Amino acid sequence: MRATPLSVREARLTRYTHSVDYVVHYEIPPNNRAEAEAAFVQLIENLANAGFATEVRHGDKTSLLVFLKIASDKLLHQQVYRYRLQDWLYGVRNSAPNKDLSQYFHDEPISDAERLRLAYLLITKPKNEGGAGITPRNGQWRYVKSVFPLHDHKFNRTWLKQWSTKYLLDASDINDIRDRFGEKVAFYFAFLQSYFQFLVFPAAFGLGAWLLLGQFSWVYGITNCLWTVVFFEYWKRKEVDLAVQWGVRGVSKIQLPRSEFQFEREAQDPVTGEIVRLYSPFKRLQKQLLQIPFAIACLVLLGSLIASCFSIEIFLAEVYDGPFKQYLVFLPTVLLTVFMPVLTTILTSLAETLTHLENYETQDAHQASFVQKIFVLNFITSYLPIFLTAFVYVPFGKVLVPYLDIFRVTAQRFVKGTKIETEDFEIDPHRLTQQMIYLTVTAQIVNFLLELVLPYVKRKVFKAVKDVQEDTNGNAAHAKDHPEEAAFLERVRNEAELDVYDVTIDYREMVVQFGYLSLFSVIWPLAGCSFLINNWVEARGDAMKIAISSQRPVPWRGDSIGPWLNSLGFLSWLGSITTSALVFLFRKDPYGPDGFPWNVRVWALLLSILFAEHLYLVVQIVVRSAIDKMDSPGLQKERAQRFALRKQLLAETLGEAESEKASGPSVVSGAEKITREVLEEEARQASIKGHGAPEEL
């Protein structure tokens, strides 16, 4: 594959359709054509110097598609060996790669995910490190719209067909995802599958509690809190197990540098002696402290909007009795629908800006900080409405509702001459349950439609409109395609317009859902049943989103679910507090207090919360200790590899000692003794932990 800038060569692409590594979608704006063309020439030169063969084809009327392929297997093998050697040096791998590459790659073949990951690194890493130095939409590469790998549609069809006919996913399904899309995506599906399997218990127990115990049962509350602890601690162990099995444990130590990092000075590393780029940790701390006013701003802005709409909804639904009531009750929903996305978008942009100001050296640190801010937004938007109902509306309703008369006074000014009628306020006994049902059932369905169905319909409509416009203007890109390439190029153009898949969005949905189950399921114990059904569909829907609605993701590696693990732990802990408070307030009367807060024994409420929290911490310690004593295939594999490595090193040491027997026979004897003692101790530790006899290793 070769390329001539801004021209389409006669060579056919059909023989490359199954070996293209990446596609660069390059934009050429008519008003900056000369500058874009000059940058395009530099793009092709950089790619060629980095070892890529390229071919160029037309995209739409203002863009080009550059097809990339690593030019030689030798270069690919060098990259694989280099990064596997790096893994060994950082302790990710237990043994160094074999220098005999032909035999080595036969024993440990290169997966699609590894090839694509290394190809992307070769595209994006700086030129002084052997890469092309191309960062999309940044600096001189601002005309590079995207760099993406092509979907394997044969695999995608088989994948979706298999999953649609299976009730449960197994390890081979997750491994297939890992080999195609990388460990980060595989970790999400592994988490989703483990979460789905664990949901069987709260779904079954919740159904029994709903039929026999009713709402706000302390038995259900304690059991549910215990379940959250067990799942959280189990998943922490499962992460380690998967990371070992996939050979990525500790890979987070090898972090990708951010091209946007702005260093202040360069200095010599006292350990390695290398020149490293530094940024003042005190300046970063000053920027990080801005997270406090950011959280306050989120709470004030989003909280004010939610509380205002909540108050308006209470007034219109339960106090107002004037004309058009049946229509006015939808006003709060309209206000939330209009203003919530606007505020969320603004605050998300602010979170991105603050994260950039913190100026992290690595992409992982940058992403972790951003996720922390997004979690604050999600927590407020997802849980504040039900917090207001449970802990404000029910216990303080009759005290606060008289202040809502301000809405009647305000409306009265617009309808002079007509008295606005009101009715006596009574707390809606079913409001809390109805709200929980909406959040755990209706909202899940709406989210699925917005996430999967709406983007598909929108994309089809926009594509149809675009095709009509191009055909009308007579400048359609496909008119210039060679017949042998037409179908392939049409598919690539469609993929170029797809959204980039972001696994963070899917993690966010599952963590928020876990929060509903942990914090509020004592209100409606059937929430577990709803989530069990939803997550079976969600796994298939997310697979469709990757295969159909998104560009194929760059297969990045990871050794965990990242900062979302801390979010799970926080929600699990907070669930012990909210559950105890809800059980205390509603245990005698499922409709809750009578709207007067002085009838609530505050000291008893605080005591129950304190007891529940300490009980949670004790249970967590016990569960963690119990799980730590359990074994797993991944940890067995890790110990076996370490044992074999130590045995090999000691054997090599003995071999060297044998060759020097004439000069030091006592050394041989000492080495033999050390070998025997070390191996016996290793075997003894393995037997104590129940990991099998040493001869099995």
TrEMBL record:
Transmembrane segments: 185-212, 218-235, 292-317, 329-354, 375-396, 436-457, 564-586, 598-619
InterPro entries documented for this protein: Anoctamin, Anoctamin_N_fung, Anoctamin_TM
GO MF entries: chloride channel activity
Record-annotated Anoctamin alpha-beta plait domain positions: 20-144
Coiled-coil features, chain-numbered ranges: none
Keywords from the named record: Membrane, Transmembrane, Transmembrane helix
Entry keyword Transmembrane helix: yes
Keyword Transmembrane helix in annotation: yes
Domain (Anoctamin transmembrane): residue spans on this chain: 177-641
Subcellular locations according to the entry: Membrane
PANTHER family linked: ANOCTAMIN
Name of the protein in question: Plasma membrane channel protein
